[in-house]
Amino acid sequence: MLPAESAILAGVQADIDAAFGGGVNPALETPQGQIASSTTAIIGDKNDLFALYVNQVNPDFAEGRMQDAIGQIYFLDRKPATPTAVVATCIGLAGVVIPVGATAKASDGNLYVCTEAGAIPVGGSIDLNFACTVDGPIACPAGSLNQIYQSIPGWDTINNAGDGTVGSDVESRADFEFRRKQSVALNAVNSLQSIYANVLSVTDVLDAYATENTTGSPLTVGGVTLGAHSIYVAVVGGAASDVATAIWNKKSLGASYNGNTSFTVTDTSGYDFPYPSYVVTWETPDALPILFAVEIANNPSLPSNIVALVQAAIIASFNGTDGGTRARIGSTIFASRYYGNIVALGPTVSILSLLLGPTTATLASYTVPINNAPTIDASNITVTLV
Question: DSSP 3-state assignment of 201?
């Protein structure tokens, strides 16, 4: 236990008094008092620095290079910035193949590339995953990915019915620690935890969720019905080939899959040509816009752009760009998570109420279904001055 600065000051004053043979005036406004104050501040500052580095060996508090060093123990590197991921509906002639790398353009000028090849079926439309070519938290609201950038004969239109899942800057302290905790299962196989950890480690994966049904009958989990003896993995972001391989390398023998997205994995380990192939299936979750309603006490001292500031504060908390953990698949979103960034806008900002929800903002908390990816957009955040 490090001493309080009051105890340090008393010790320094005692040392000065002893050095001069006693009877020294201890008042802090005297020359000797100023020396005692400065010395105490120096010692206290070094003690604080020492305490900081002692705490850096605890993964719950580590940050920066110290957190990177702890990650290396688990063979983990901090993820670089990741791109926004979005599901877009491609419409065109049946049989036309839209390959990986097919490019579309959003209304803000950003380009998005297809990460999962697919052939347009008889119905004339197919939902495919696209990722922004620019890393970082770039919003892709519903309806904004609406222009084919590289023409493919038979591919007529593209549009995204739901908001994209916003990408991220370099992995935050909170997100890196979250992933490190899951990584303890990375070296395991045939367990749900190892599948989850392996998928989270895939390049450009923004979020994932994994669960299973070990019974011999269908089972409903988180609003989704799972087949008997099956696993369920929901993934946002990442190339389809990488996600499928990550799941395949860790799944248990005999377990079946659930989901709406498939990719064929070729197993080259221990086999002679021709290698066996297996279809891996997982869920690409639907975008779920989360609505917010905030009431702020009206005050003439509030900034003129208080509405935009509050919206930005909520978006930062939601996406984890404030240093906290982002809203995730299957997680419970608490309204209280969003108070801090709003209050930090200034001493004149007083929150009267903050509610949220998927269709109307009337709840103090909301648990996201496991087949939905929560999304946020400023247009879904209502700020009222009361």
Answer: coil
- Numbers of helices and strands, H then E, in the chain: 8, 22
Identify the pLDDT of residue 130.
95
Question: Percent of the chain, pLDDT > 70?
Answer: 97
Answer yes or no: is pLDDT of 361 > 60: yes
* Three-state SS annotation for 64-77: HHHHHHHHHHCCCC
**Distance from chain centroid for Cα 364:** 21
Q: Supply the pLDDT for residue 274.
A: 77
Q: What is the DSSP letter of 2?
A: P
How far is 341 from 216, CA to CA, in rounded Å? 47
Residue 88's contacts (CB-CB under 8 Å, 6 or more residues apart) are 104, 112, 127, 128, 129, 130, 145, 158, 159, 160
The β-bridge relationship of strands 291-296 and 277-282 is unpaired
Q: Which residues contact 64 (CB under 8 A, 6 or more apart)?
A: 173
- The C-alpha angle 350, 353, 356, rounded to 5 degrees, equals 130
Query: Which residue is listed with tokens 């979103």?
Result: 333
For range 83-110, the mean pLDDT: 93
Least confident of 219-233, 243-257, 268-282, 308-322: 268-282
| CA 196/CA 183 separation, integer angstroms | 9
Amino acid type, 126: I
Distance (Å, whole) CA 39 – CA 346: 35
In the three-class reduction of DSSP (H, G, I as helix; E, B as strand; rest coil), residue 37 is classed as helix
Cβ proximity of 87 and 165 under 8 Å: no
Residues 6+ apart with CB under 8 A from 122: 94
Tokens 């509405």 found at: 307
DSSP 345-368: T-TT--EEEEEEESSSS-BSEEEP
| Sequence letter at residue 383 | V
Report the 10 Å Cβ neighbour count for 292. 23
Enter the pTM of the model: 0.71
Three-state SS at 292: strand
Q: Could you tell me which of 200, 319, 136, 57 has the C-alpha nearest to residue 65?
A: 57
Cα-to-chain-centroid distance, residue 120: 32
- What is the three-class DSSP state of 287? strand
